Amino acid sequence: MILTLTPNPSIDRTVDLAGPLARGEVQRVTSVVSQGGGKGVNISRAAVAAGVATIAVLPAGRNDPFVHELLSAGIDCRPARPAGEIRVNLTITEPDGTTTKLNSPGATVTAQHLDALSGTLLYRAAAVDWVVLAGSLPPGAPDDYYAGLVARLRGGRASVAVDTSERPPAALVDALPDSAPDLMKPNGEELASFSGGDPAVLESDPPAAAKAARALVDRGVGAVLATLGKHGAVLVTADGAWHATPPPTTVVSTVGAGDSSLFGYVLGDLRGLAPGGCLALAECDQRQPVRGEHRGEHV
Description:
This protein is α/β, with parallel strands linked by helices. It folds into two domains: 1-177, UDP-N-acetylmuramoyl-L-alanine:D-glutamate ligase; 182-299, Ribokinase (UDP-N-acetylmuramoyl-L-alanine:D-glutamate ligase). It has ten helices and 14 strands. The protein has helices at 39-49, 65-72, 111-125, 145-153, 167-174, 188-195, 199-204, 206-218, 257-270, 275-284, and strands spanning 2-5, 10-17, 29-37, 54-59, 76-80, 87-93, 99-102, 130-134, 159-163, 183-184, 223-227, 233-237, 240-245, 295-298.
């Protein structure tokens, strides 16, 4: 079973344009789709689609339409006391796959809100296989919120994965090894922020990305899954490093690609696959067409 935490959930509204985005002009929209989201919620959605048991923990009122939507989708949702209304994020997608995201900050939380959220998560963590801490933190949350949760979860039954951005991953790295999760999933830019490297170089050079990820593994992180866009992904563990490249594909949207990668890795682990197999599944699970060109190799 996978237990996900989404501290800052969102109503994700995706607008598909008929042509390229033109600032200051009136444009035609081909479709608008709205659904409950956030990184942890997205991973729980993927788990339901794959037939894997999951529980999604997030701040929301018990009778919030957001919660009812997740329950209707088959997601076991356990809401904790919210600080306010769930934010709305807007994604604008152009025909060539270019994606523009406008993310709201969310309601400002207090220590009481975070304690309620943590308690809801920790109460259920002893009965699951993976705990996934994912997404941005709401205003008011300390940067080391995830680091503190990982420290409390370490040594338990569940493996712990963290996928976040901006200041929280830096706070987690600063607290290593006490805050070391079983899996971290940075992209090239985030990996560069930990290592002091050039984001463009790490994004385009898998061996360089593997070297930067190795520094995190040496400090106690169980595995680092670094997603590198069109250059695939690199997985580094104490036993080695692997690189997987995706098959040729036409990109329609990059929304949710990173969440799908993380879920693919966790799914591979639940199936008992070796690290290289988990990495291959992480790349394949980005909902891209697979025609046999997908490959994984040691770095």
